[in-house]
Amino acid sequence: MIGYEIEISLPVTDAAGKKISGDTKLAETTARHPDGPTGKPFFRVVSDTRSLPNRTKYSNLEFVTKPWSVVGDGHTSGPAALLDTLQRIRTVRDAFYHAKEGTLSGSAGGLLQTLPAGKGARFAPNNGYREVAGTAGNGDGLFVHYSVGVPLAGMATFFDRLRPAVPSREGAYLPDARHRLHQAHSFAENAADAFVPRGPAAPAKGADGFLSAKARHRREVLGYLQLLYMQVTAFADHADELESGGADAGIKNRTVVLSRAPLAEVHARLDPVVQTALRNNHDALTTMLADEYHEKGRGQRQRTFYDTAFRKIDGDPVVLLDYTKAAFTGEVSIPQQSVFGGMRQISPHVEEEAVMVPFEIRTFGAVMKSWDEVTADLKDLCEWVQSSYELGMA
What we know:
Oligomer: single chain
Largest sheet: 11 strands, antiparallel
Number of strands: 13
Strand content: 15-25%
Order of helices and strands: EEEEHEEEHHHEHHHEEHHEEEH
């Protein structure tokens, strides 16, 4: 599955001219999935929050799409549906900017159906906001997050495709998160060598051939440990920042790939041999992770792995060391929401006979995108997921 969120700068208020709470569903497209009149809308328009130059908060707009399957049978129809949805969003967005003033409901003709919370919602283009669309280096001012479901057995392949699109360099957006994406690969390779020995491919069988059990195990562990590493180091980087006097903000932006599923739920879908290897060696793996983390900060800056650091968002506090152990052992399921804050959690699920792991890509390509760049991103993501699926099913 692939879905996406496109945020724009345009301000909006409620009917009384007040700020709207974030993530309020304001409207949805009248076009619906062709599974009948109760089918899901192709996208919704929701409120988000940005800051004016004077740091006052205001409500802006975001388009949130339904996800489409892009693997197996879905690979023939899903990519086209994603691009069709993008064109519909562009039409509505352009209508919003053309209207500039007036109500949300009156700006897009019959393309949108206003929801109760959106009744009377109005554009507020004169509130002093900074418009980035069309300015140098900002494309059409589209700030995009992609939600992607990737086959567990092909996740390492997907990360191989993603890394070149998120280069690690000074001056790049989210440089620490990018560094951890690249570092995750070496950690996973070293851990796999130490605890899941590499096995040779079995002889080819028939026209398709097949991989040995050991090769499949290694492929699984390479993908899972990269995902694990990015989640744990995001928590650790945030804790290190707080200890240095930084603000308690932006933990989601500490990772390029944010898992929407609790890591224990992903762990439970691994081959039992891999589960056992990770569980039996969790102390050594934690030490390996903490050592690599400490020694290889961006720019060789040493960081401290504060194993007693904790996050308290909902329910009981989550301690960094406990979160790490749970990821390696799968013995306790810790909600991602309890570490990273507001998010919709989605469990791993079967799609076209493959176990899909859902996550969000926090940065990919340009920060502010053009419509052409989003189109290219979606095409790339569809191909990467399909190639990961094909390998995972081998």
